[in-house]
Design goal:
The structure is a homodimer. Chain A has ten helices and twelve strands. Chain A is α/β, with parallel strands linked by helices. The structure holds a DNA duplex.
DNA sequence: GTTCCGCATGAATCGATAG
DNA sequence: ACTATCGATTCATGCGGAA
């Protein structure tokens, strides 16, 4: 960790260390977006020092307070998380966390979903395979940065047909509408082969043939990075893992800052990001 | 409402009245499955007497206590619900309700999702269209009835490719085999091509062109009815609305009980169910 | 009898305006 | 300052009429 708290020291770096300590060294109001997938409760205890579900909220809250401090007022915080099933029930630490984060001052703006196209197989007597995770969206204030056009998607089939066969009367009608001042955005209609997405991301999980267990597809942080930042903005992941968030940010021309406590993952993350640089040049 | 509390009085009927009062007249441990979509907070205030978001939990809890009383020990309770956006934030009444239901003794077994294929349009500066709702699954005890085979689905790409590559003669042969009742082999193949679903239901909302506004596609209760009951079991919907749950139950050979307070919806629900009867005969 | 196209219609939400 | 109402925005779906 650098001892200076100048902003330039906190850009395009991967820091090894405890994220709470590292965050405390950072200047306030300097991050545009936080995207992270924290260690899951009790899972992979051997590899990551799992947190017991009953202790999860109290473990996370001090970190969240620091995240709130370093985030810009118009910034966003996206938390990818899913509660485990414990003793046949869904544990409540995630929803308790939402309530506590609100007490901390966070606004719970939205709950996006990651609907996994392919999820781990398995069979249990009391439940099916879990194919979704929460992407909780928090803010410091009601007015925050959002660039919706950056994530538009092609429209449904019907639109293609419509646009192909756009009749003369249709065109005339649209024009006259605009002329009379009612249809304020003709361009919207004419250029309309793209639509805004919904709050569900339907992405596949990353394939397993990489030499790390990144259960977080690059498309996930990439989507939120496009949606909530512009090129040159700073993206923070306090639980970097194998580096996915930083790679996504760099590929999109954003600055990144990753924090990772485990030596092994820290090395891996550095390698992933460097690899991208070299392949770029 | 009947004054008797004999079980036969509470099967294959639609009751008009306040659901809390009606439930209190019911015998305990008599229902196999409760599937319902209660009036959403503050919505349809004009037509349904909307409940204020801040009062939602306290309004729902006494009803939930009665539901728990009438549910069989091995029964399930599926609650389709989604929180509103209030003042730019997602309201917390749904997650507070989960915590309170647990205090009441319910087990929060799972959270299924309804991922809507088509969701309401709209554009806002701070969020996208909401295309999902929660289907919270609660139980009285850890061991409950679940018939997973009843909701198996055709397998994914692997099966599709196989079917694509089948020659026409193969298809005909397979079809005729199946149709003629031969072929344990065929059924084996079919079973191999079937997989257990996940905890996400990807269904379209019912379209508006019907003469009632059932914003609850019949496939949704039907799926849970198949999953958690057997023919002859009793399915309860304490907020019946236009009757969708009862129609789904009856079509699947289950007994039903619907409770609806609004005269208009009560009439509509009765009509819907009768219509199904007559078209059956 | 098909296929195609036009159209109305939402379990929505926000911001502005009015009381 | 707080609540109530209204207009604007937006797109997948299925019906009905047309080709």
């Amino acid at each position: 960790m650098p001892s200076e708290t100048q902003e330039s020291e906190w850009r395009n770096r991967i820091v090894q260390g405890d994220c709470l300590s590292a965050l405390k060294g950072m200047p306030p109001n300097s991050v545009d977006l936080i995207v992270t997938s924290p260690p899951y409760a009790d899972s992979r205890k051997s590899t990551y020092g799992g947190i017991h579900p009953d202790k999860y909220v109290e473990w996370f809250l001090p970190i969240a307070a620091e995240l709130r401090r370093v985030l810009k007022p118009e910034g966003s915080f996206v938390l990818n998380i899913k509660e485990k099933a414990v003793n046949g029930e869904r544990h409540t630490y995630v929803i308790e966390l939402i309530l506590e984060l609100k007490k901390q001052g966070w606004l719970w703006t939205e709950e996006y979903l990651w609907h996994k196209k392919n999820c781990a197989p398995g069979k249990w007597p009391n439940r099916f395979r879990d194919s979704w995770e929460r992407c909780l969206h928090f803010n410091k204030q009601k007015a925050f940065a959002m660039y919706q056009e950056a994530v538009m998607v092609p429209m449904g089939d019907w639109a293609k047909k419509r646009l192909q066969n756009l009749s003369e009367t249709d065109k005339i009608r649209d024009t006259s509408k605009a002329g009379s001042g009612f249809g304020k955005n003709v361009s919207n209609w004419l250029e309309r082969d793209m639509a805004y997405p919904t709050n569900v991301l339907h992405l596949a999980t990353e394939c397993a043939n990489k030499n790390h267990s990144a259960a977080y597809p690059e498309d996930l942080p990439a989507w939120f990075i496009k949606l909530f930042t512009q090129p040159g903005d700073l993206v923070l992941d306090p639980f970097l893992g194998s580096g996915t968030t930083c790679v996504a940010a760099k590929k999109l021309g954003r600055d990144y800052l990753g924090i990772e406590i485990k030596e092994e993952y820290f090395q891996l993350a550095q390698a992933q990001v460097s690899q991208h640089f070299s392949s770029q040049k």
